[in-house]
Amino acid sequence: MTGAGVSAESGIPTFRGTDGLWKNYSVQDLATPHAFKRDPGLVWDWYRWRQNIILKAQPNPAHYAIVELERMFERFLLLTQNVDNLHYRAGSRKVLEIHGNIFRVRCSECGKENPFTCIDESIHELPRCDCGGLLRPDVVWFGEAIPSRVWAESLDYLNTAQVAVFCGTSGVVWPAAAIPGLAKELRIRTIEINLEPTPFSRTVDVSIMTRAGETLPRIVNALSAAE
Q1: Which of 34, 63, 87, 99 is catalytic?
Q2: pTM, whole model, 2 decimals?
Q3: Is-catalytic flag, 87?
Q4: How far apart are CA 78 and CA 216, in angstroms?
Q5: Total domains present in the chain
Q6: Which of 56, 73, 100, 128 is the most exposed place for a label (fewest CB within 10 A)?
Q7: What is the CATH number of the domain that holds 11?
């Protein structure tokens, strides 16, 4: 499972703490259904700005190491809290996006999805669905539930896993933050890779306080040498 710390190594702001302000608006003011209903233009301005930052970023060594792990293990699943599409750009395919994808949109009225759409900053009209409803970013906002299919598939896979690795996740965003505890209950070997301690640092089997872009390639190299 990956979190914002992996994306941060590609230069993408985490939007938490000092990164959490945009034009004096906090993330909590913008990433909610209420904010979109109140001022969809403002919310789209923020997401267009974020899309442009992400498009300039490149996958980092952590992303590519995860691709190698997927190739090495037939039974593999990547759960990501990140919405930036960098895992796909790096080559990952067995991915579940817990919080959606910033380059997808869906209708706020009929729910129809449109994949991998980048909203042009030069277009000032709000994007609309064929049904006439406003399109919104296909991401999970504060106050919204994780898609039931994604959550169910995550738990189903967890029941068969032998090792769970948590990279760059703060462990404070629920319900994703419950996964490390569930893994321990299932007696899965757990490994944390993060720059700072998290709420589950003391309960995982191995906690490595370093960058995922440094540690994951070393793990891949060690596994390759052992084959």
Answers
A1: 99
A2: 0.91
A3: no
A4: 14
A5: 1
A6: 56
A7: 3.40.50.1220
